[in-house]
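We emphasize that the prediction below concerns an isolated chain of 358 residues; any contacts that depend on oligomerization or on bound cofactors are therefore not represented. The input was used exactly as deposited, without trimming of termini.
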Amino acid sequence: MGLSPTPPVTAPKAETLLEFPDNRLLIDLCGANDQHLARVEESLGVHILRRGNQLAIVGGPEAQAEAAQILNGLYARLEQNRPVTSAEVDAALRMGIDPETDVTTVEQIEMFAKGKYELRTRKKSVEPRTDAQKAYVRALFENELAFGIGPAGTGKTYLAVAVGVTMLIQGEVDKIILSRPAVEAGERLGFLPGDLKEKVDPYMQPLYDALNDFLPGKQMQKLVEEKRIEIAPLAFMRGRTLSRAFVVLDEAQNASSMQMKMFLTRLGEGSRMVITGDRTQIDLPRGMQSGLVDAEKILNNVKGISFSYFTADDVVRHPLVARIIKAYDAEEIAAVSRGNSEEARGQYVPRRATRHDV
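Result of the prediction step, given as a token string:
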């Protein structure tokens, strides 16, 4: 009786070869000095060799497949005349490539219903770059009141303003109202010269910066003059009813509990409201409770209100910002642990105040 033949052992694929027909687009795909390829290599642990109009990917089978999918997806983006920058490469590495990225012009709301995430404004298109950002943008479209809570650089305000501009362009709302508390960030700036607008504008500048990214200068100026875009301190909201407006309260951690309740009750018919803030950067006077912290506890189970949370992994401002936030978080955890250890040994150690206590 003969022995059955041993099945052949399949050797792992040595490399994956990708061919790109347009050399100009391939140059953009690789980036200056092949920086985009280097980013993919570093993230996935592969080696990418460029041979004419081909890219050879060397590495583990799964890493090869993932790198090929990302490079093909980014190339498809370039074929649609959409830019590929370091930010788009990082987003693709974090989230993978959505198979619907090949779909072209469709209505904004329909795109979100089908799972495609892109905000088209007058000057640029904006896409969420992390899963948390995708969930946040969907929440902004689906809820009349939404909270975005997390560290700096995660796109909370930027995406909210982008959604507001998109809704204004489409006629979903009649105006955009952007507000934030006029609270100094741990400094005493003293007397500011000029009229009332000149005094408060420095506090509102981040909101102007976001709008300038989405609207041409002349159009933005006209909309401001027509009061279709308003940028005002939180104190100016008292007594108003905000109807058919997209309303954003930025830096909400610096609103008092009384101010937060006042602002939330301004919501009128046909309006959307977004509250953004970072609980770790509270600049209120000691002993004053943050309205954001209070609202999170009180409204957490109220129907029609969404809460979206971000972490350092969602930072898109600069990779170093994410590392800085993680370092501070680690130090805070270590400090709490040291304090608990001292108390466990029977020693009284006054707990160090943090911004959460303010």
